[in-house]
Design goal:
2 domains, two-stranded antiparallel sheet, 26% helix
Length: 128
């Protein structure tokens, strides 16, 4: 957190919206608000009433046909889901079930692999 100091008295200021506005400027505050206050479907996970779970719980949800994502992912609107066999072909070969990721670029990437952080963190949530 940024320490706010009254330039006239040298005393600490409460981090109120007015104090922040005075310190960083109204335009900066408005830009931050427009970036973070999204419609419900795009609201950041920590701003919604969400239950976060482990990867093993998230995997169970994937197997039930649900989409899941992580609070810790930096990309906007990224999630993973099960791509069932028969939904795609590779040349003359049918594909097996796999986990696919919907990427920031709005493409589906089959064959997603979990990182160590993905496996160990407990910030998974169901995408609605």
């Amino acid at each position: 957190m940024v320490d706010l100091v009254d330039p006239d008295t040298g005393k600490d200021m409460e981090p109120t919206e007015a104090a922040i506005e005075e310190t960083i400027g109204k335009k900066t505050l408005e830009a931050a608000d427009s970036h973070y206050k999204k419609p419900d479907s795009e609201t950041k996970p920590e701003e919604r009433d969400i239950t976060f779970v482990s990867f093993s719980a998230a995997l169970a949800f994937i197997k039930e046909g649900k989409r899941v994502s992580r609070k810790g992912w930096n990309g906007k609107d990224m999630w993973i889901e099960l791509i069932e066999a028969g939904n795609a072909m590779c040349g003359q070969f049918a594909m097996q079930d796999c986990i696919g990721m919907k990427t920031v670029d709005n493409v589906m990437q089959p064959g997603w692999l979990a990182s160590q952080a993905d496996l160990l963190d407990e910030d998974w949530f169901i995408v609605t």
